[in-house]
Amino acid sequence: MIKITNTGRWNLWAVSASTLWIAAAVAAGFGRAQLATSLLAGGAWHLASLWCLVRLLSAWTGAKRWPAVGWCLVKFPLLYLGVFALLRLPGLSAVGFGVGFSLVLVCAIVWLMTQAGRMARAEG
Questions:
Q1: Do residues 86 and 100 lie in contact, with contact meaning Cβ atoms separated by under 8 Å?
Q2: Contact 43, 101 (CB under 8 A)
Q3: N or C: less crowded end of the chain, CB within 10 Å?
Q4: Is the pLDDT of residue 34 over 80?
Q5: How many helices and strands, by DSSP H and E, does the chain display?
């Protein structure tokens, strides 16, 4: 199974979730409750998408391919129908959703670059 964890205290999931909560708290602190809710919704959707992708890749690289088909059915139709339904809610901002989605993406890129740097330094 592919592990997206860090041997240290923080891992990708914790860093992404913490960043989302901080951004939502700042938005709510400025009286932007709709933006805060949208940030959390976009980030939560992206975290769910990443989680399904990790499971899909782990299943795909495993001995049996059938679990990968199941994860494809979860990730693509269900998650994308869910995002379509979420974005149609009247109290959700598409911009806030996109920013929340992007925050998780930025956290993932920075975290993966940090891990790659650590691995490069460890190999010498």
A1: no
A2: yes
A3: C
A4: yes
A5: 5, 0
Q: What is the domain partition of the chain in residue ranges?
A: 31-123
In this predicted model, which residue has the larger pLDDT, 53 or 94? 94
* Residue 26 predicted with pLDDT over 50: yes
Tens digit of pLDDT for each residue in 50-79?
888 878 888 888 777 778 888 888 788 888
Length of the chain as a residue count? 124
Least Cα distance to 36 among 20, 48, 49, 47 occurs for 20
pTM for the model stands at: 0.79
Q: What is the DSSP letter of 78?
A: I
> Is 52 buried (19+), middle (13-18) or exposed (0-12) by CB count in 10 A?
middle
The two three-digit tokens of residue 87, written as one number:
């974005």
Q: Is the dihedral of CA 108, 113, 117, 122 positive or negative?
A: positive
Greatest Cα pair distance in the chain = 54
Q: How far apart are CA 101 and CA 58, in angstroms?
A: 23
